[in-house]
Write a structure and sequence with these properties.
Helix 1 crosses helix 2 (27-41). The longest helix has 29 residues, at 82-110. It is built from six helices and no strands. The chain has helices at residues 2-20, 27-41, 46-58, 65-73, 75-80, 82-110. By secondary structure, the protein is mostly helical.
Length: 111
């Protein structure tokens, strides 16, 4: 299961970079970008991580259990800030949709 080792190494590298830079961006996100870059430039072959990635993706629902438990455990805090959470989720969703649409249009013109 070398694929899982590759994924964990890139995750750890992302966490390290995140801590060194003050934690502005999540280590998991940095690790994914590093893994993507390694896959894109050919430093890591997709076949090496395909099986581990498939297993992780097929069991992704298990990764949301701790999040759900945390939300239930913090019910009072969530209830007190519900409108802020709803507004932040709605605005960020609209921004993501708009940015993806703009990028898609620009990439479509190039092709």
């Amino acid at each position: 299961m070398k694929g899982l080792l590759y994924i964990l190494v890139f995750y750890a590298a992302g966490e390290l970079l995140s801590r060194l830079t003050g934690g502005i961006v999540s280590g998991g996100v940095i690790g994914m970008v590093l893994l993507f870059a390694a896959l894109a430039c050919g430093a890591v072959k997709a076949e090496r991580v395909r099986e581990a990635a498939h297993i992780l993706l097929s069991n992704m629902s298990l990764f949301f259990v701790p999040l759900g438990v945390g939300i239930i455990a913090s019910y009072d805090l969530v209830a007190a800030n519900l409108w802020s959470i709803v507004v932040a989720a709605a605005v960020s969703t609209l921004l993501v949709i708009a940015i993806v649409g703009i990028v898609q249009q620009k990439m479509g013109r190039r092709l």
